[in-house]
Design brief:
By secondary structure, the chain is an alpha+beta fold. It is built from 7 helices and 8 strands.
Length: about 180
Amino acid sequence: MQTSLLQLKEKLLKLGALRPIAWDAIQEQIRETSLKANESFIRLPGQIAYVVDGILKEYDAHLRKKPAIINFLGTDEFILTHQFSQRHYLKACIDTQILSISREHVLSLQTTFPELLRLYIPISISYYESSFNRQYLLEIKSVPDRIARFKEQFHTHLKYLRLKDIANYLNINYDYLSLHYRN
């Protein structure tokens, strides 16, 4: 877990200043979760999670007969769980390691260490930008262009993603994708 914590610390330091005492307090509250492929990560309200290693797919089943994959979250990415996103569930594509901290601990730490409030904004932005990425891709009319853009954006994940999941994310027919994906 020490390596995972160092990775998180480096990520947080890239986002802003962090006093050693604040980092010590964060470390005391962190919970580590290891998932095997196809296992789910349980989201709790207000939780912040960090993907140390692996890939998760985020599903939304709300008002759908079949859940839609709305996001892929990989190594070095944050996951926020607000009231709206709590209904989305997360499944591991491959073995995945996650560090998380509960809402109660986040609020307590932000009260004690105000600099953590400034870190919360870029963490939120990074999560929501990745969440809105799918909407942008779906607005691309040309399906070959949509596939190309997907490959460009998720190039580090491609060898771990199933074509069925990519078709779901891009909202295109699996057979069409399998014919055009290699080109």
